[in-house]
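[audit] Reproducing an earlier prediction to check determinism. Same input, same settings, fresh worker. If the tokens differ from the archived copy the diff job will pick it up downstream; this log only records the rerun itself.
[audit] input (131 residues):
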Amino acid sequence: VQLQASGGGLVQPGGSLRLSCTGSGLTSGYPAIGWFRQAPGKEREGVSCISSSDGSTYYTDSVVKGRFTISRDNAKNTVYLQMNSLTPEDTAVYYCAASVFSCHPWSPLGGDWTRADFGSWGQGTQVTVSS
């Protein structure tokens, strides 16, 4: 599936953004849809994941800290990431990705998120948090 991530932009600290991830057959064909991010000079890290079937959600607590919410609209083949209370540390390129496996366990394999088993990736959307 070809994924399209959108919704990024420039926002002031404390602001909000909603990212969208779309793709033909996204939620019907892939059990797990995840959001990842990569900041300049840093490694990719997982942000959140949602199960297409039952809507179970998973978050990287150290990243999200209760500020982000992932959701899905199966009818629109779209997964959203609502991000609130953004800080400059959230500045990164955000990617959505799809997996034929499960979100669980939502943790980096061997501490390395690049080893997460997500085979289909979108192009990324830039989120910049700055005053």
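[audit] rerun output stored. Observation attached for the diff report: Residues 35 and 96 are 4 Å apart (CA to CA).
[audit] end
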